[in-house]
Amino acid sequence: MKLFKLMKLILLTLCVIVTVPTAMAADKKIGILVFDGVLTSDITAPLEVFGVASRKSWFTDYTPIVIAVEKTDTITTEEGLSIAVDSWIGEQPKVDVLIVPSSYSMEPLINNSALISFIQLTGKNAEWMASNCSGAFLLGEAGLLNGLKATTWAGGEAQLKKAYPKIDVQFDSNVVIDKNVITSNGSLVSYQAALALLAKMTSERKANEVAEALQYQRFSKQRFTF
């Protein structure tokens, strides 16, 4: 009888050991939209920042995923980089954060009703929404920037203001944060924006930890805490 109880206790202990890692596995997603012709740095910057963060003990509940606008296995950026995707908008992936990048040709994306609907639906429940460069036009088309301060690529602010007059467009600003939405100039500023988002999601100290791992301070003195 005692042997039976001992064996039962050992089995219960093993069950706990086996199930704990599963319970602690990443269950929150940071979605990064992609499509053929996307500007490379708009997506590689947040992928690197959040990829490094997800390997830290304090951020293991988040994992970045790549979401394509069209059903495909890979996309090719404007600069010729091929990137494998994890999902596409037709599968309606649930994410806690959505980052919207840009392209030199935004009109087909703005006119893509399925894409705009996905952004709108995601925006209703996401913890954070973000855009780099002209990705702000997609958030604007989805109505997610109405009444908020926002920016786009440097020099494109007037276009954003004209297209979406309900947005409080900020000129000459690298990164703008209003409520749970972050917009940025894109390109190299995408690193600053991703670190700013990470700081808001965690803390300044933890964002600095990732910035140091990326040697961010060696090329930029731009702050990422707001």
In a few lines, what is going on in this structure?
This protein is of the alpha/beta class. The chain contains eight helices and eleven strands.
Description:
- Strands 5-2-1-6-7-11-10 form a seven-stranded mixed beta sheet, sandwiched between helices. The chain has a two-stranded antiparallel sheet with strand order 3-4. Strands 8-9 form a two-stranded parallel sheet.
- It has one domain: 3-Layer(aba) Sandwich (Rossmann fold).
- Helix content is 40%, strand content 19%.
- Helix 2 (40-53) runs parallel beside helix 7 and helix 7 packs antiparallel against helix 8 (204-213).
- The longest helix is centred in the first third of the chain and has 23 residues, at 2-24.
- By secondary structure, the protein is an alpha/beta fold.
- The protein is globular.
- Residues 1-25 have low confidence and may be disordered.
Structural class: alpha/beta
**Biggest sheet, spatial arrangement of strands:** 5-2-1-6-7-11-10
CATH class: Alpha Beta
* CATH architecture classification name: 3-Layer(aba) Sandwich
Please name the CATH topology. Rossmann fold
Helix content: 40-55%
The tally of beta strands, per DSSP, is: 11
Can you tell me the residue ranges where pLDDT is under 50 for at least 5 consecutive residues? 1-25
Sequence of secondary-structure elements: HEHEEEEEHHEHEHEEEHH
Which outline best applies?
globular
CATH superfamily: Class I glutamine amidotransferase (GATase) domain
Strand-residue proportion: 15-25%
Q: Please count the helical segments.
A: 8
